[in-house]
Amino acid sequence: MELPLRVKLLISFSLVSILMVAVVAGLITWQTRNILSSKAEEDALRFASYTSELVDIYINNVRARMENLAMENEIISAAKTRDAQKLSRISDEFEVVVKTSPSFETLGLQTKDCVLLAIDRQGMGLVGRSFSERDYCKGAIGTKMTYVSGGFISAATGNPVLAISVPLYENNEMIGLLVASVKLPDLYEHLLMIQKGDHLVVLDRYGDVLIDTEGKLGDVLGSSSEHAKEKANLVNLQTSNRKTEGSFILEDEFIGFAKFDYVTIVHSQSLNAAFITLRQTIGIIIIAALIVLVLSVLLVWIVCKSISRPIEKISIAVEEITKGNFRVQLEKSSTKEIQSLVDSMNRVMASLKLAVLKDEKNRKK
Fold it and tell me: Is residue 184 within 8 Å of 166, Cβ to Cβ?
């Protein structure tokens, strides 16, 4: 069955319109996805850097307080002489510091061999015990500088902590260590407040999970999630190549990380959250495409009608001529090409009519 010209034109124009709308929508979606992907990665990296600065401030507040204490003559004298009365006064001072500074878990004075001389009241039963195997002891003695340890369980309180050890010097000779345990639960609560629904993981200097906002206090308590451990392994691979910051995609998340001296911050942002804007944009594109498509079909229908209707009238006129009706007069058309055809047909019909009249006259003669 032969389709009418109007239908053929309508189908052709509709297919072209659909193809154009699909191509444009695809290009816009692709470009939008690239832009949003880039922005989401930048946001993850920026947030990781921002969080690392907060953690650094939290730790540095403790470190600055300890470095000031390490310059007090009474503490230096107590470390050197190990006088019982001086050590008792130092313990009382440490108790005040711990009570008035929310970041401190414990504060103690150790010999240069890491034997505990004095501590706040929570750890009085540990006086005389050696902590030479702790990494904060080895780190401070090895570097002869302030050292921040990895995470561990405090012997004094049983809570997860990391330690800051500050060497004590007299006449350029190290005579002892000032060691503070930093509260991790408080830091964990701080991070929960700023994470905004994303996943934050803090790794210690050894790449172990220190804080995991999905699994609480990480490997210190054995409560880090498998999700966090997987991210930690991937980040540790990258930082092992001396890379201090970067970002990558893991399954359905953007991962940004920033490493400094003693911790690495890993921030994860869900692709679903990142692409809410993309889905909204695609929805708008689909609606706009449907509107354009409907308008295109209507426009094509009008154009097809303006072309096919005069042709149909010409076809009817030709049929009338074949029946001997030469009084047919075609109407004018607004389309230049169709009007030219109409004029030609009118001239043909006029010529045929004149020829028939001449023929009739000749017969009568």
Answer: no
Residues 6+ positions from 40 with CB-CB distance below 8 Å: 254, 269, 271, 274
Domains of the chain: 43-56+186-274 (3.30.450.30), 70-183 (3.30.450.20), 324-365 (no CATH)
As given in the structure block, the two tokens for residue 12 are 């052709």
CA-angle at 106, arms to 102 and 110, nearest 5°: 145
Residue holding tokens 């409907």? Answer: 294
Residue 183: other Cβ atoms inside 10 A: 23
Sequence letter at residue 273: A
Q: For residue 304, give the nearest of 335, 276, 332 by alpha carbon.
A: 335
Distance CA 108, CA 329 (A): 114
Question: What phi, psi does 329 have (nearest 5°)?
Answer: -130, 120
Q: What is the CB-side half-sphere exposure of residue 327 using CA atoms within 13 A?
A: 0
What number of residues does the chain have? 365
E strand intervals along the chain:
104-111, 116-119, 147-153, 160-170, 173-183, 199-203, 209-212, 245-250, 253-260, 263-270
pTM, two decimals, is: 0.65
Contacting residues for 355 by C-beta, under 8 A, at least 6 apart: none
* pLDDT bracket for residue 115 (50, 70, 90): very high
* CA-closest candidate to residue 159, choices 104, 90, 214, 120: 104
List b or e across 301-311, with b for residues whose CB sees 16 or more CB atoms inside 10 angstroms.
eeebeebbebb
- Rounded to whole angstroms, the Cα distance separating 325 from 38 reads 75
| CA 153 vs CA 158, 179, 220, 254: distances in Å | 6, 14, 7, 32
* Residue 325: φ, ψ to 5°: -95, 105
**pLDDT tens digits, residue range 167-210?**
999 988 999 999 999 988 778 887 877 766 678 888 888 888 88
